[in-house]
């Protein structure tokens, strides 16, 4: 499928950036959406070098329904149609339900879940009117299970999966309109160190960790076929199977995932991350991964030091700063 009109949200980093670059190598017209103009401009320059037929930069927050509507209108004004929308935009906050400040908790739901609904409500009528096209909602393995200290993200991704099922049901009368849902597993992207945190640590992707480029290839392959398995990692199938046994999952697997995702990561003070505002100049495809053994040793030393000083542990967090 060459010279398609492909709109990518979350195009300034991670999987969205990888999808945009891969679409550019195919000679597609690439429409780039994210909150930060500077990062989007950098993405556009990279796509042009890779062979994109054209690029279009639209800085906006997908949580703003009016802005999403204006975006879709602008694309139609320029290109006359939209072939594929790949919705990758998302944010993360690490913390328990009661520990996260309401504006952070709600901000994750606004971007991840309401943002997905905003994109769908404006894109689906266009695809139906054209008689064809594809909407891809990028979910997560965490939209199928639960884990400690990622409450709003887990809730939002369960919602994205439900939204995809609902949209498929509502559009069965348009066989050439494809609603696809994909669930990456652990992917090495900046979303973890961009995340808000009140648990005393950054996050990190759970193993096995794959690359955003691999996720992008899998997503575009499904777009080309118009179908495909939702799970992008075999490990997702294992965790979903274990989740069906609540005692095993809640007492064994979930704590292990929590340990791998947070306890081995770099200690940080409470902060709002990029949940409320974008981070200037952050245009990376991959995150900041480090050696697991070194991470374990470092965090063990930090915990011993904290106990020696009688300081609070990560189970009693401070609220993150929400001012710049």
TrEMBL record:
Gene3D superfamilies: NAD(P)-binding Rossmann-like Domain (3.40.50.720). Pfam families: adh_short (PF00106). Residues 311-324 have a biased composition (Polar residues). Transmembrane segments: none annotated. It comes from the Bacteria. Residues 4-186 form the Ketoreductase domain. The keyword Oxidoreductase applies. Keywords: Oxidoreductase. One of its GO terms (cellular component) is membrane. InterPro entries: KR_dom, NAD(P)-bd_dom_sf, Sc_DH/Rdtase_CS, SDR_fam. GO terms for molecular function: oxidoreductase activity. Residues 305-324 are annotated as: Disordered. Belongs to the short-chain dehydrogenases/reductases (SDR) family. This is NAD(P)-dependent dehydrogenase (Short-subunit alcohol dehydrogenase family).
């Amino acid at each position: 499928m060459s010279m398609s009109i492909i709109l990518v949200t979350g195009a300034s980093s991670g999987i969205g950036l990888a999808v945009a670059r891969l679409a550019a190598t195919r000679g597609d017209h690439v429409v780039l959406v994210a909150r930060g103009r500077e990062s989007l401009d950098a993405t556009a320059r990279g796509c042009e070098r890779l062979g994109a037929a054209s690029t279009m930069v639209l800085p906006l927050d997908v949580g703003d329904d009016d802005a999403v509507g204006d975006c879709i209108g602008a694309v139609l004004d320029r290109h006359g149609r939209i072939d594929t929308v790949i919705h990758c935009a998302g944010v993360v906050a690490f913390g328990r339900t009661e520990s996260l400040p309401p504006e952070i908790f709600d901000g994750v739901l606004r971007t991840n879940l309401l943002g997905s609904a905003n994109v769908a409500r404006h894109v689906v009528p266009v695809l139906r009117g054209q008689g064809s096209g594809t909407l891809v909602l990028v979910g997560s393995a965490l939209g199928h299970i639960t884990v400690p200290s990622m409450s709003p993200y887990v809730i939002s991704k369960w919602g994205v999966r439900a939204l995809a099922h609902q949209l498929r049901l509502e559009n069965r009368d348009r066989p050439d309109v494809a609603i696809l849902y994909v669930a990456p597993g652990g992917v090495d992207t900046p979303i973890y160190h961009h995340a808000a945190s009140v648990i005393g640590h950054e996050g990190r992707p759970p193993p096995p960790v794959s690359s955003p480029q691999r996720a992008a290839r899998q997503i575009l392959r499904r777009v080309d076929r118009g179908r495909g398995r939702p799970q992008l990692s075999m490990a997702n199938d294992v965790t979903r199977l274990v989740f069906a046994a609540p005692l095993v999952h809640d007492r064994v697997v979930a704590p292990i995932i929590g340990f791998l995702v947070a306890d081995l990561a770099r200690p940080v003070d409470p902060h709002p991350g990029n949940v409320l505002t974008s981070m200037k100049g952050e245009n990376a495809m991959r995150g900041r991964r480090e050696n697991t053994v070194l991470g374990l040793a470092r965090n063990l030393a930090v915990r011993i030091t904290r106990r020696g000083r009688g300081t609070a542990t990560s189970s009693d967090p401070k609220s993150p700063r929400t001012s710049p």
